[in-house]
Amino acid sequence: MQKVKIITGSQASLTEKLGRQFDITVIPYYLNYSDKSLKEGIDFKTEEFYKSLADIDNLPTSSPPSIGDIINVINNLVKNYKEFIIFTLSANYSQMYNTCVQASKQIKDASLHIVDSGGATAYQAMMAIIAARMAKKKESVNNILKMAAEFKDRGDEFCVLNTLKYLAKGGRIGRVKALMGSLLSIKPVIVHRDGITAPLAKARTNQQALIIIIETMKNRLQDYPGHEISVILQGVFMDEWLENVEKALNEQFKIKDLWYSRLSAITSIHFGPKSWSLTYYIE
Question: Of the candidates 17, 127, 207, 243, which lies 20 to 30 Å from 25 by C-alpha distance?
Answer without folding.
Answer: 243
